[in-house]
Amino acid sequence: MFSSAALLAVFLFGPNGFTRGTHMTISTHAVPGVCLAPECITVASAILSAMNHKVDPCDDFYEFACGGWVKQNPLPDGKSIWSTFGKLWQENQLVMKNILDDDTRPTNSVAERLAKTYYLSCLDQNSTIEALGSTPIDELLSQLGGWNISSSGFNVTSWKLQSAIELAQNTYSRSVFFAWMVAPDERNSSRHIITLDQGGLTLPSRDYYLNKTDREKTVTALKQYITQVGVLMGSNEEEAKTQAESIVNLELRMAEVTMPEDERRDEKALYNKMRIMDLQRLASFIDWVSFFRSGFSLVNISVTGRTEVVVLVPSYFRQLSVIIKDILAKPTGKITLANYIGWQTVNSLVGALAPSFREAQRVLQRALMGADGAEATWRQCISDTNNVLGLALSSMFVREVFDEQSKPVAEQMVREVKNAFKENLPYLNWMDDETRELAKDKADHVTDMIGFPSFISDRDKLDAKFEGLEMREAEYFDNNLRISQWMLLKNMRRLQRPSQRGEWDMSPIQVNAYYTPSKNQIVFPAGILQAPFYDKNYPSRSLNFGAMGVVMGHELTHAFDDQGREYDKEGNLKQWWNNRTIEAFQQRAKCFIDQYSSYKLNNDSINGKSTLGENMADNGGLKAAFHAYRGWLQSNTEFAPLPGVNLTHEQLFYVGFAQVWCSTETPEATHMQVLVDAHSPAKYRVIGTLSNSVEFSKTYKCKPTSPMNPPRKCEVW
């Protein structure tokens, strides 16, 4: 959100030597035709205070638009990233705190009571969590056969890998060695299928294990974290260190056979359908029929060797089987595997244990993020509640603050952005006519969901979504297990049910948006339909189009990026482009890969290949939104200029776009983003996108030699 600076801030950030294209002038006198309404003064003040007027926009538009914001917004204590997204999320959290803390708000909704009970169990005002210490996790580990590091009764003779994996995955919903779920069948999006993927690493990327520099810092911190948790659970420090070493060595071997993210962008190559009996031949370290029966028997679904599954990375499962069999051949093999499974289980639940466990985790958080992530308990509890009971929480949020009139205005903006995207298709000379018509047809079939699902306003329908779930105020750890188990059962039941296009994959409170290829659907939650992204009462429509309009265009363009283009209008994985057009697309995609790979932050080079889809979406979204805004101007009149902001409305469009990406972060957080995030860092989401825009350079009158107007520009959509 824009910082709420007073008009004084406008004077503080007056002109400072900026001359090219446009300039800032501040006056205390009324100017004819200038909007002096309170909302205009507030917005103008926020825009100006976020800017750095000493910088030429044609040299570095990110610094021009965000330099003041970065200076005024140092990282808060405990935070590794601070941004407009984060500020808006904190405001949403405060709204929810006021609702949940207010005992005078009675509710007849079972779902809303579940959310409040979970929130209170997380707050733990009676210090129940601390009093329990490691008892809850000790009891769970005993069910898994014990953990050699703790005092949970590990017996190497009776321990069985099959049973431990089945219990961890299919009773307690913990991902050990691999991940699996029931998901839409990418080649027949109307049905669901069991899908397996690589997984099971503690660190967020294989590179943290394999890169020597990263390994020295983060792997050392990981070992310290495991050791400290072991000590908290009753082990002596030397024994805990030894076992931590064996766990990390196993994860290192797993990292070596894990497919890098930039090699996972070909959707067709990832789709490997086979029968469970074929999976058994591929990876025989467990009995797969028995494994799946241990889960699906709980929902009365039959599984046989002929049941179909999709394995996303067959090479990982094949090599994982070799690793596990090699370890089992050693005298200490069972201990190593049991320690790994125990560790993954403990690590996934550390946040639900006593404060001493969470403090141990901060050693790793500091190494990874440059900050320990500590924040007020109530904020963490709002986030946790949103993660597990987001729809119930959203019901209260929407009722409290969401403006119903925002929804139709946003829906109209989506239509305008979509029309602008389609109107540009005839000008793409790299596409053949048949593919162009199919692309238009796919764009026509993109459905949108805005704000929130209607059923959350219907108490009975909302309550039905949480049928069978139970919460108890004094049982935060057990509440987390109950939710995990309930969600696992809910997911498994999908196997015999058709795919539902109206299901939300994100809490409506989230400050985010998304596109789902298998549904050909774009979603814009209520959480992001607020300033600075969107406000139906903004005193300049250019700000709405520059911020939220670009987000809408971004998600729409995902339907046509390097992965989304592989899905047809019904959401099925299918080749609907001809080979010549595919080749032309790939040539243009390489331009983006090369461009973004040339950008560096703190000596980290952006991976232009793994960020390709997001970079395409940023560029296509900006273009579609700008054209949509120009289309809106043809039949509408803009508001009067904002006071003190000597920018045209078209220039203001680009400032609105850039200022939603104002952020600051630690070097460690930047490094992690470069390694694991499919998005480019915020600075280059602005610079990379705008330097490809001919309209931007014309709007700001950038010379051909200026950094923001390079001779080579990348464009697909």
TrEMBL record:
GO MF terms here are: metal ion binding; metalloendopeptidase activity
Organism domain of life: Eukaryota
Domain Peptidase M13 C-terminal, first and last residues per copy: 512-716
> Which GO CC terms are listed, alphabetically?
plasma membrane
Q: Does the keyword Nucleotide-binding apply?
A: no
Coiled coil feature spans: none
Check the UniProt entry and state the signal peptide residues, or none: 1-21
Q: Which UniProt keywords apply?
A: Disulfide bond, Glycoprotein, Hydrolase, Metal-binding, Metalloprotease, Protease, Signal, Zinc
Q: Does the keyword Cytoplasm apply?
A: no
Could you tell me the Gene Ontology terms of the biological process aspect for this record? protein processing
Q: What residue stretches are annotated with the Peptidase M13 N-terminal domain? A: 57-453
What's one Pfam family the UniProt record gives for this protein? Peptidase_M13
Q: Which PROSITE patterns match?
A: NEPRILYSIN
Q: Which family does it belong to?
A: Belongs to the peptidase M13 family.
Name assigned to this protein: Endothelin-converting enzyme 1
